[in-house]
């Protein structure tokens, strides 16, 4: 935070006012130039003042995502050896300050990932091999899952080996390097938070991969109990029994037929299927 000047610093003449106005105009011009330069970089993924030279095709792009969107191959950002300043167009090695005009390319800079962006409390994880959005003190690296997870999940989640080295079961984006928020359901199959919301919006509650319930459904099962208790079956269906498999506890039961659901006799859930 900038310090506030005391009363003695306030100008009391027109000349000083004029100088200060010019100084303010100069600062505004600098801000405008930075804004124009950022607009020129035309990157919708990051806020930066440089372009990266892709080693694969020797062309300059604002970022690897901008490259991949218009190419039939992917850009390896770790192989970038040359960048271009957006403000003065000077070509130079990987750094965070232009050697000619002194423009700072990004509030956050990672020389390993060649990542430039505005400050989001990012940090580089050596074990993940990439940068994560922090703050760092709120995350830890789970060696089994091979991913940085919230400390709230430490000892409180189901570990799945190399969990992030897979694709989202909904949108199929590779999860380990995804820029979107993740969610780890009870079964341990990682999924994008936005994709999870789309599942819930459709009234679904099962993991697309293993069919287990994504969350604790005990409150909802109580409601289903009430629905089932209110059902009045015709005489020819009152003695019908069905064999079911619970997709949460993976145990078999034989239960009475009910139009509102088939309840597992082992765990009391309704995430069941007839076998």
TrEMBL record:
Residues 105-167 form the CTCHY-type domain. Residues 1-21 are annotated as: Disordered. Pfam families: zf-CHY, zf-RING_2, zinc_ribbon_6. Transmembrane segments: none annotated. Residues 168-211 form the RING-type domain. Coiled coil: none annotated. Residues 36-103 form the CHY-type domain. Signal peptide: none annotated. It comes from the Eukaryota. This is RING finger and CHY zinc finger domain-containing protein 1.
């Amino acid at each position: 935070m900038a310090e506030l000047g005391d009363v003695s610093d306030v100008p009391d003449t027109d000349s000083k006012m004029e100088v200060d106005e010019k100084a303010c105009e100069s600062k505004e011009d600098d801000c405008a130039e930075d804004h124009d330069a950022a607009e020129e970089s035309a990157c919708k993924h990051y806020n930066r003042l440089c372009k990266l030279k892709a080693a694969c095709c020797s062309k300059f792009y604002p970022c690897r995502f901008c490259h991949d969107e218009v190419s039939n191959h992917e850009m390896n950002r770790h192989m970038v050896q040359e960048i271009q300043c957006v403000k003065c167009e000077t070509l130079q090695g990987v750094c965070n300050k232009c050697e000619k005009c002194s423009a700072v390319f990004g509030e956050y800079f990672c020389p390993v990932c060649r990542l430039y962006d505005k400050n989001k409390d990012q940090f580089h994880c050596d074990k993940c091999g990439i940068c994560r959005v922090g703050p760092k003190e709120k995350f830890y690296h789970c060696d089994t899952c091979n991913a940085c997870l919230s400390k709230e999940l430490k000892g409180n989640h189901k570990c799945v080996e190399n969990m992030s080295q897979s694709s989202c079961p909904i949108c199929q984006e590779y999860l380990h390097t995804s820029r979107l928020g993740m969610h780890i359901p009870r079964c341990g199959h990682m999924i994008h938070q936005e994709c999870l919301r789309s599942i819930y919006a459709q009234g679904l509650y099962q993991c697309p991969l293993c069919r287990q319930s994504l969350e604790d459904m005990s409150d909802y099962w109580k409601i289903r109990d009430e629905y089932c208790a209110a059902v009045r079956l015709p005489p020819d269906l009152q003695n019908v029994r069905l064999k079911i498999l619970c997709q949460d506890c993976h145990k078999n039961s034989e239960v009475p037929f009910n139009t509102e659901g088939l309840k597992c006799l082992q765990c009391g859930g309704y995430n069941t299927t007839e076998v």
